[in-house]
Amino acid sequence: MSQRPIELHYWPTPNGWKITIMLEECGLPYNVIPVNIGKGDQFKPEFLKIAPNNRMPAIVDPDGPDGAPISVFESGAILLYLGRKTGRFYPQDERGRVAVEEWLMWQMAGFGPMLGQTHHFRIYAPEKIEYAINRYTNEANRLYGVLNRRLEGRDFICDAVSIADFACIGWAKLWERQGQDMDQFPQVKAWIDRMLARPAVQKGLMVNKEDRNATAPRDPAAQAILFGQTAR
């Protein structure tokens, strides 16, 4: 496998951490290109060429499947691509792959978006709307219950540590911001501790850590960029 560095367009958020964790776990070299989402870097033409949904993370792999560079956007697609590229953290057998894909899609469709909305209405929304806070805090609670049941008798979400775990841990470690009590979910609590004890996970979470507070999400200008986007 070539060791030319992968170009990672990134900002230190739960979605960005998915990819730094995977790259660290796989031991792949990579160069970080910061995408300051609070200042609008995600709308720059050069970024939109590889990430048309104006969301990070995105990667450019100089050693694509045909030997030419390939760009990949959407964190779940990147995890799947890197899993296939390396043969790691993504099972080779079909039954194993189905299980990992189920839980990766669960994260992409529910666990990430719903916890993100929980963060928004509990922390960032300028107006505290009780209905919205309760709606998303309760949905986060439901999803942690789903994950807790899944982890009964398991060390990881599937048979072995996988891209499904990497997709979830960055969101789950922020449970306090989501108004949750991990004593209610002992299996999740033990899994979080297990994941955060992994050296590669620790390294992935530290990438460009100083940038996390570079733009205050409560700043009106940043909020207009982060939360005021339309088609035009």
Q: What features would you describe in this structure?
A:
The chain has 232 residues and is of the alpha+beta class. Helix content is 51%, strand content 8%. The chain is built from nine helices and four strands; from the N terminus they run E-H-E-H-E-E-H-H-H-H-H-H-H. It has helices spanning 14-26, 45-48, 75-86, 94-124, 130-150, 163-172, 186-196, 199-206, 220-227; strands at residues 6-10, 30-34, 58-61, 70-73. It has a four-stranded mixed sheet, with helices on one face. Helix 4 packs parallel to helix 6. The longest helix is centred in the middle third of the chain and has 31 residues, at 94-124. The termini are far apart.
In short:
By secondary structure, the chain is α+β, with helices and mostly antiparallel strands.
Features:
four-stranded mixed beta sheet; 8% strand; 232 residues; alpha+beta
Question: How does the SSE layout of this entry go?
Answer:
Blueprint: E1 6-10, H1 14-26, E2 30-34, H2 45-48, E3 58-61, E4 70-73, H3 75-86, H4 94-124, H5 130-150, H6 163-172, H7 186-196, H8 199-206, H9 220-227
